[in-house]
Amino acid sequence: MTRYGMVMDLTRCNGCYNCFLACRDEFSGNDFPPYSVSQPNTGHFWMRLVEKERGQYPKVKVAYTSVPCMHCEAPPCVTSARDEAVYSRGDGIVIIDPHRAVEQRQIVDSCPFRVIFWNEEKRVAQKCTFCAHLLDTGWKEPRCVEACPTGALVFGDLDDPVSDVAQLVASGATEELHPEYGLGAAVRYIGLPKRFVAGSAVFGDTDRCGEGAQVVLTGAPGGQVLQVTTVADNYGDFELEGLAADMVYRVKVSAPGYEARELVAKTNTDFYLGDVVLQPVLSPAAVDGVPGGRS
Ligand code: SF4
Ligand code: SF4
Fold it and tell me: What is the pTM of this model?
């Protein structure tokens, strides 16, 4: 049996808002009984894009997280509603019946993800339907997925082992936005913003960018020993992503012919190590200050 789900690969998202606009285009001014009535022109974000500024100057970046209804397996919105005004379909899609849900404002507050919106004019709670009105007429994916230019959104049947969405979930690379809610979300994520450590390697003798410097980060988040390696780019910049918060990591920066540097990064926030200046390994001659070396 089909069980619809979606994977949001945030490492591919460039924040273009096409998914949000496609959703708005589909539902604003359009009624799709018995799935939904039209979305108001302002104030509703059935596909919400959350922008989060990350890092410390000068290493600052923005993470975009797209957040629709999670179409939970154990949805509290269903139990909050009277007269079966919210229900889960056999394919896992959770629908707010636009007629039965009239004047049931409590439905809005039932969702811990805050993805249900109140339509003041129509006096009804509303949210993402995974474009069920289109799927039921043969569409393979919702409008937001079709509109995404980067392939960040993947939609399909979680119970079909050869579907892209099922294979992404089976790979172990995805996670829920809020697993602590324990609701069994059918929407999962790759690349949710966690913490990153960045820095810039510099060769101290020439003051040139430390291109090719090796960077090794070690730590023990959750008691598990972690070692991650990367290489500084042609600007000497390096970055290690997806780290646990509130940890202390050791970062070793090294390059052939240079003394290695070891630094500490605390991930109570994204951490910028600054310029990591590598000094050349001194020859015995230079150590003794004697032309021709030791005698
Ligand atoms: S995300 Fe919220 S609105 Fe969607 S199914 Fe879960 S509880 Fe209901
Ligand atoms: S359409 Fe795709 S790339 Fe654009 S904001 Fe949405 S998820 Fe990101």
Answer: 0.87
pLDDT band at 288 (very low <50, low <70, confident <90, very high): low
Average pLDDT over residues 159-174: 98
Distance CA 89, CA 41 (A): 28
145/7 Cα distance (integer angstroms): 10
* Whole-number Å distance between alpha carbons of 177 and 187: 8
Does residue 63's CB lie within 6 angstroms of at least one atom of ligand 2? no
% of the chain exceeding 90 in pLDDT: 93
Check if 168 has its Cβ closer than 6 Å to any atom of ligand 1.
no
**How many Cα atoms are found within 13 Å in the side-chain-facing hemisphere of 262?**
5
* Start-end of H helices in the chain: 18-27, 76-80, 106-109, 132-135, 143-147, 164-170, 284-288
CA within 13 Å, CB half, 184: 12
Q: Whose CA is nearest to atom 1 of ligand 2?
A: 148
